[in-house]
Request: fold
Amino acid sequence: MIGNRLTHRTADGVRIPGTWRHAFICNGGTYFLTDLFIYADGLVDCWELVTLDEFEKKLRSGWVATSLPDGGSASAHHLGWWTFREPDTWLTPELLLAEVRDTIDELNGRPDSTGRCLAAVDVFLAERTEENRSAARAAYLAIPETVRHYALGDMDRKDYPLRVLVAGPGGRLPGMPEEEVSQEEYDEAVAYFEERDRWRAEAPSRVPADGAVESFAPAVKLYHSYPQRALEHPDKRALRNDYPAPITLDGATYPSVAHAYWALSVAEPEARASVVAAESGAKARTLAAKAPRREGWERARTAVMARLLRAKYSQHPDLAEVLLATGDATVLYDDADSGFWGDNGGRGRNWTGRLLELVRSELQAAQAGLA
Reply:
């Protein structure tokens, strides 16, 4: 299972997705704890990039080690050395190769051995012949033993209902030849899968209790525009902080959010007055950059910006409508001078965009009478 272990390599300018897993490599008699990198195109990096056939040879030769000798010397690169004492490992070359093959299928969005088994089970449940049961049993046995417990994604029952189903009444459980399946156990397994099928059929229509995870509206990007005057019919350019929309805060009036932000950032009253009087938000930034900053400004600036944005959109209902029109879109804000406030092609933290989404949500709450 890949989980969050995602990586990639670039080949001929193409990004090849991949993942990694821990393994031991035996080199010069020492067992090195390292990572195998597995890629969607079927190549595996085990200290060199090899094809799947070559990887199997590395397994058979012991270069990629699945058995560990008592007294063997081991190393975790630059972290420590130790000696094996009564080591125990459940991997075999066959198991590890099967798991790697499954990983490659998963990276390509194809059904892995578990997916193929569950598909065979669906065929059997639709037409319950012994031929179909035999095919489902063979597909179950093709799943690597190390992952069979997870086939149903049920951490309480594990794969027990699956083993009972493919064995059939009077049959022997895979891996437990002494256990004979009773009719009652088989009926319970069938009922389990029927209930599972009902749940799967309903799942696409289930609505999360707290609403959708993803946005419905496409992302909105607020490019640099350096507005010099207010627009007669404001569009998303009006969402820029340097858009000329005067705001009043604590008895002082500022030509824009940018003016207010930079004026509040400086320590000296004289410098603050010059920033407020600047011809544009860009010039306000330039003047503020030359003046001493308030103590603790970096830790307070996010709260200050949130307050300024609330003032802008509460004092300018027409601009609030522009913000509300973005729906639930992700707001990406360009700011070439700040990786903190700007998204900047995914390289910045986009705090302006995030705060705009927060203020938009507050406006939506007010409209719904929830503020």
